[in-house]
Amino acid sequence: MTIFRKSMITLSAAVLGFTLIFAASVLIFMNSFYYEINMKSLENTAKTLMAAAGNDRLNAIFSHNEENQDFNFLPLGADDVYRLTLIAPSGFVLWDSHVSDRLVNHIDREEVIAALEGKEGSSRRESISTGMKRIYYSLPVFNGGSTIGVFRLSISIPGFWARISPVLIPFTVFFCLFLLAAFWAIIAYSRSLSASFGRLVNIVRPSAPLLSGLETSEPVSPEFLSLEKTLRAMTQELNLRFEQAKSEGSRLEAILNGMSEAVFAMDNSLKLHLVNPKAKEIFYLADNNDIPVLKENTLTLLEATRSTELTDIAKKAVSSGVPFETELTFHAGLSGTKHFQVYASPLVRDNNADNDSGGAVLVLQEITRLVKLEKIRKDFVANVSHELRTPIQLIKGFSETLLDAEKMLKENIHFVDIIHKNAIVMENLTNDLLMLSSLENADTRDMEDCQIAALINEAVSSVEPQARKKKIEIIVKCNEDFSAVLYGSLIIQALINLIDNGIKYSPAKSKIWVNAFMSGESDLIFEVRDKGIGIPSEHLERIFERFYRVDRREKGGTGLGLSIVRHIALLHNGNAEAESHAGKGSVFRIIIPSKNMDHNNHH
Known about the structure:
Blueprint: H1 3-53, H2 55-64, E1 82-87, E2 93-96, H3 110-116, E3 121-126, E4 133-143, E5 146-156, H4 160-204, H5 208-212, H6 223-258, E6 262-266, E7 272-275, H7 277-282, H8 301-305, H9 308-320, E8 324-331, E9 337-348, E10 357-366, H10 368-402, H11 409-440, E11 448-451, H12 452-469, E12 473-478, E13 483-486, H13 488-504, E14 511-519, E15 523-530, H14 561-571, E16 575-580, E17 586-593
Parallel strand pairs: 12-14
Antiparallel strand pairs: 1-2, 1-5, 3-4, 4-5, 6-7, 6-10, 8-9, 9-10, 11-13, 14-15, 15-17, 16-17
Helix pairs in contact: 1-4, 4-6, 10-11, 11-14, 12-13, 13-14
């Protein structure tokens, strides 16, 4: 007996055993659900009959407790199959379709108890009244929200094995005959397979030298030796191709991993089979093992991104077969709104002459920063126009008035004073804009080692006159030994802006605290704290923008002071931040990284 015949017989025996086990399992399973299926059928029939009887008629029957009346709720010709029983709340049987004699009280029946509680009930037992094994299903009859009776339907059913016994013996005989025929066919097929396999080796052998070089000097052996030589050659070639594909895959994965754009590749049903790390990062999928790079999976684009807009774009690319670009906005919860430039391109099957789409590739480039910069630019232009329009109009108007020789001298002096004040506003605005421009083009080679305390004292001295007018006390706290490599004049300007704001928005006779300290070993922090009117929380994110004002009705100032502070902090590779609550004062901080600090300082 050849190995093919042994294998086929063994496999057939295994299949036979599995078939027998499966058939037995199915029978056991069907036996367990046999009564449930019949109970479900009985439930549907009971509900249909009860609906056919009508709630009004049932209420009338149970309300009068009419025993053994001439009722017939069952379908025509079904009286011998289904048994209908009407039971009063006391358990007394008002009417039974199969038993005309007086029946025992049914108050202790399981299904009756459930129905009297307002629920549907069912049970399976041998009927005391009829002496047959039956299944019961009961429905409560309601009147005004209370249960006034029980509508019970039952049916006698044979056992599961009794039900299938008529077909079991013929099926067993047929199965045995089929088994004998199958074994005979397996033996015949194994013989044919051996011969066919030998012919297959003879067909494959000529291609082996092309794959593996010169044929080996091993003697000709049975058919398996030739097949082994052929398969070894083919394996060597496949391994070479696999290594090439693996190398190409690694290069592709390296490219995808290094991209700053998010990439999704999917089939025409939008099931993802390629997602790069940037896409996982943007859509918070970094820990989702169901979406590996360069591996197929069953997640769809919608399940991965939770974006119907992106799904619609992919569907359009798949259906149209034409690449296109568009912009898309996502609302990313706490991360705010994100803007993307989306490039969608269909994947075309190489072996499809009609160029039908085999899927799509989506490339998402985040342009949130560009959108914000564009908005800031637009706001900047609008605000500059708004800030300059009023003083220019005033200067123009009052200048024209001065040209009128008929005006009184005293009035002209007043007009000149207005022109002068608005000219100062324009001059301050121009100076602040020039300051911002110079900050953006500053050279770090101009930085020098500065004493922190001296910088703070000079800033405080500059705003001391304004503080005295409102009787505001400025309290300075700083270690005299602090020093750092800074733009000293710019730090002074930033502190002046912050302290001046504190004086402007603090009540008379209050206090302002100016501190400089180290945050652990990491950062040098300048802090200006006041007890002024504070800033509402919704404005805190934007107060460092150019020309942004919390109150647009506010007069005076240029709206650039805090923007200058932020640019000075950025120039030192640091940042500026604000902490405030309306009516409780504000805290402004300039944070300078420790790399600017003199490491000989001690605090």
